[in-house]
Amino acid sequence: MSLTDFIKAMPKVELHVHLQGATQPETWLELAERNGVKLPASTIEGMREWFVFKDFPHFIQIYMAVCGTIRTADDVEFMAKRFLAGQAEQNIRYTEITYTPHLHYKIAGLDARTQLDALNRARKWAEHTHDIKCGFILDISRNVTPEEGLWTTDMAIMGMNEGVVALGLGGPEVGHPPEKHAISFQKAHAAGLACILHAGETEGPASIWGAIKQGSVRIGHGVRCIEDPKLVAYLRETQIPLEVSPTSNVCLGVFPSMQQHPLPKLISDGLYVTLNSDDPPMFNTSLTNEYLTVAEVFGMDEAALTGLVINGIRASRLSESEKAAMEAEFKREFERLKIQI
């Protein structure tokens, strides 16, 4: 078995992937046809061509257009099931899925309970059908008002015993610091719900410091910490996990090429790194592809790659007993696969 085959076969977890951004063009086309929504392309080939990343405004244009095809609870469930089936194909046993519910409340009037029930039908289906698990990070898009952010916070708190593992913060960083939604994070913390904020992608270290001050238990991206030695030292000391998505970072111009991505430096500096795909079809990637890429570009061997997988388990919002059981199971599978290399 080659290292490539090992990567494809090994069990994985993913902590940073957006449900809407991870939905394949084929699924969006089906939803558009089902609901009579006109998209810029009407064929699979046309959709794939339209999906090719050009720049951030193009990315947002695609994201908003396809989200407009979601009209009912059945659509949400359909989208989530399709995504989870794709995770199962990659042997991703556990996923923490970022989902932006307020968007569908605004576009289609889908209330919090309706969306939560649809997500949980998909979650239970995936467990029963594919033997994989997931949790949901309901995220506030940072460009909405603090009042609109509280709508998502209330939904996340409502779902704490129904698959919701954290309150998130995503969307455009520039001009929208984490402090803008402090009232939501305070409310979540008071309810005992973790907060996981995007920071340090299109904004620099100040954004990461802001996320830390708001009590973020992990940092979505966080790669621009390298611009601040004090921040690097703090992250090394506290071991706050970073959810790193290399292909996404390169596509968005955070770094000019994969070869110049700081992933090896983050690891050698002793920071806590996990590997993720972010919005995979929009960046022509997948979690499996991220592992294949870092193996090829940075020469990572199977020990380094499986270490990143174990980091993902330990940084997840699973219970301590669930983490221990999953880690033991994964390590047994890694050993079986290694024998075949």
Helices and strands: which structural class?
A: alpha/beta
Q: Tally the helices: what do you get?
A: 17
Low-pLDDT stretches are none
Question: Main β-sheet: number of strands, strand sense, barrel status?
Answer: 8 strands, parallel
What percentage of residues falls in helices of 4 or more residues?
Answer: 40-55%
Whole-number average pLDDT?
A: 96
What's the gist of this structure?
The chain is of the alpha/beta class. It contains 17 helices and 8 strands.
Describe the structure.
The protein has 341 residues and is α/β, with parallel strands linked by helices. Helix content is 55%, strand content 14%. The longest helix has 20 residues, at 320-339. It has a single domain, classed as TIM Barrel (Alpha-Beta Barrel), CATH 3.20.20. It starts with a helix and ends with a helix. Helix 1 runs antiparallel to helix 15 (287-298) and helix 6 packs parallel to helix 8 (112-130). The protein is built from 17 helices and eight strands. 48% of the residues are buried. It is globular. It has helices at residues 3-9, 19-22, 25-35, 44-51, 56-67, 73-89, 101-108, 112-130, 146-158, 182-191, 205-213, 229-238, 246-251, 263-268, 287-298, 302-315, 320-339, and strands at 12-18, 92-99, 133-141, 164-170, 194-199, 216-221, 242-244, 273-275. Strands 1-2-3-4-5-6-7-8 form an eight-stranded parallel β-sheet.
